[in-house]
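Tokens as discussed.
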């Protein structure tokens, strides 16, 4: 296109807008594909008006058990969740989390993130925290621990003291300490602080 030939320059000038439109279309297609790979995500304005939702979010909204759209406005079904979300959106609370308890006792957490256009907010449903039984099984598999050792490790990972863990497990503090020493020996770390760092790394897998 930098050639002196006027015909070539004219052809390039005519082609440029089409190339630009094709690039924009390709980018939008890639963004849409990526959007559908995310966990359930809704795009709302600061008033809660629903602008867009990916496939997983649409399915949850249609089911109507935890989330609903009424007159175009997105809201959790749980009254406490609806109040907390409305307040966070009104206060401009973005890049934050909003959590509440469902009627069945499950905890639901939405991550609020500001979009580049500043007019919208992405609401992403975070996965439910794993129970201590599930964490214990995962630790047992990855660190080759016994059932009781992995149970103690799971309690320590959730922030329990050794005494708390012993009480929940219905064992003596002395027995809990023996399990702890066995875990330290098994995974090859010198102390509880290093063990906790290792457990957190394993739990993130």
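Sequence:
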């Amino acid at each position: 296109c930098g050639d002196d030939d006027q015909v070539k320059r004219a052809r390039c000038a005519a082609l440029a807008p089409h190339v630009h439109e094709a690039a924009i279309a390709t980018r939008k297609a890639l963004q849409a594909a990526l959007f559908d790979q995310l966990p359930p995500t809704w795009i709302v304005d600061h008033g809660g008006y629903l602008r867009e939702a990916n496939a997983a979010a649409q399915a949850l909204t249609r089911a109507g058990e935890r989330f609903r759209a009424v007159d175009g406005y997105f809201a959790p079904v749980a009254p406490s969740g609806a109040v907390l979300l409305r307040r966070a959106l009104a206060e401009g609370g973005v890049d934050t989390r909003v959590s509440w308890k469902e009627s069945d006792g499950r905890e639901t957490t939405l991550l609020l993130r500001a979009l580049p256009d500043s007019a919208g907010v992405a609401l992403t449903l975070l996965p439910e925290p794993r129970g201590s039984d599930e964490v214990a099984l995962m630790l047992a598999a990855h660190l080759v621990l016994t059932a009781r050792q992995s149970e103690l490790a799971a309690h320590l990972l959730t922030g329990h003291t050794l005494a708390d863990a012993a009480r929940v497990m219905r064992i003596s503090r002395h027995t809990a300490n023996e399990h702890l020493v066995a875990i330290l020996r098994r995974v090859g770390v010198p102390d509880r602080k290093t063990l906790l760092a290792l457990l957190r790394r394993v739990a993130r897998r």
